[in-house]
Specification:
five-stranded parallel beta sheet, 8 helices, five-stranded antiparallel beta sheet, 12 strands, 39% helix, alpha/beta
């Protein structure tokens, strides 16, 4: 049974989440601040940590930084309260495996936990989000310079196009719904019907010479979303 360590200073939220997570097959350990997390991780050895960003004593981001400085690569999901793309990019750059904006549906958190655990299963190396460069064959994405090269040639991508490709490469093999991409990459938490994602995916496919009928990089899963097909390697 996977063990989760969830830290949040909202006692009511913890009381709501604990039974839901337990019914979903998880063992749950709770904490109310970052210092408690650092104290309990060596003893509890959780399979995944859920950190609220805004906590007393030691906030979620500082807790995450200290874990990574200690070479602890336990998967971490950050709970944030600012939904801007910059906030979310910062979460990944600091070593988070995923992030969820408050308020959220508990079932969405459970889905994120399951997805992160699937990606982490059988792997002990650093998460992709901790690396500067993401590499899949001849495709290289530099998260620091925000440049993408394909077949040793630079690609001229828009900021949205870069963010979309980065997000998909950080979640290889996952089927990512359009709504999640609009929320995570565009920052549109309550987006109306739009083809913004489809348009950017079409632009990426053209740049990558990726045939939708026989995709090498981005697959459309009808009725569900998009999936990055290639294996992704993280490099410094």
């Amino acid at each position: 049974m996977p063990k989760l360590l969830i830290a949040d200073d909202e006692a009511d939220l913890l009381a709501e989440l604990k039974p839901l997570l337990e019914r979903s097959g998880f063992e749950v350990v709770m904490a109310s601040d970052g210092q408690q997390v650092l104290d309990r991780v060596p003893r509890e050895k959780p399979d995944l940590i859920i950190l609220d960003v805004m906590m007393p004593r030691l906030n979620g981001r500082e807790t995450l930084r200290r874990l990574r400085q200690q070479n602890d690569w336990t998967p971490v999901i950050l709970l944030t309260q600012v939904g801007s793309p910059a906030e979310r990019a910062m979460s990944l750059q600091e070593g988070a495996d995923d992030y969820l904006n408050k308020p959220f549906e508990p079932l969405e958190l459970i889905a994120r936990v399951q997805a992160v655990l699937r990606r982490a299963k059988g792997h002990t190396q650093q998460p992709l989000s901790s690396y500067r460069r993401l590499v899949s064959g001849e495709l290289v994405l530099d998260r620091q310079t925000r440049q993408v090269n394909f077949r040793a040639q630079p690609l001229n991508l828009t900021a949205r196009g870069f963010g979309l490709l980065e997000y998909l490469m950080l979640h290889p093999g996952d089927i990512v719904p359009r709504e999640r991409l609009l929320d995570e990459v565009w920052g549109w938490a309550n987006a109306v019907e739009t083809r913004a994602v489809d348009i950017r995916v079409a632009e990426l496919r053209k740049a990558l010479d990726d045939d939708p009928a026989r995709p090498r990089f981005i697959q459309t899963v009808i009725g569900e979303g998009y999936c990055f097909l290639g294996e992704v390697e993280g490099r410094a």
